[in-house]
Amino acid sequence: MRADNTGNAASGALSMGAPGAGAPYSQLLQLKRSGPEPLYYQLAQSLERAVADGSISHGTKLLPDSDMARELNLAVATVRSAWTYLERKGLLTRRRQAGTFIR
User: Fold this and answer.
1) Where does the pLDDT of residue 30 fall: very low under 50, low under 70, confident under 90, or very high at 90 and above?
2) pLDDT at 68 over 90
3) Which listed CATH number (1.10.10.10, 1.10.3720.10, 2.30.30.110, 3.90.580.10) goes with 25-102?
């Protein structure tokens, strides 16, 4: 989430693809950076759990890859690897110029 010049979180920063009730993805998608599993896999599993428990709804448009990476303090390549994995599993759909959506 970006901050305004006062250091406060900018309202509406997650309006495109916000996961519900305005909760930032960084709170919903938990990663263990020192864990044995690769970060892309942890991200994919965490997103699957969030969809399964209703924290993120089907049809939700996710943030652009670079914004999601910034939100989660990850490399863009890590986010793209997770989304590719989930797309192959059928959980996500990606459309050029439209974005990435939860199925």
Assistant:
1) confident
2) yes
3) 1.10.10.10
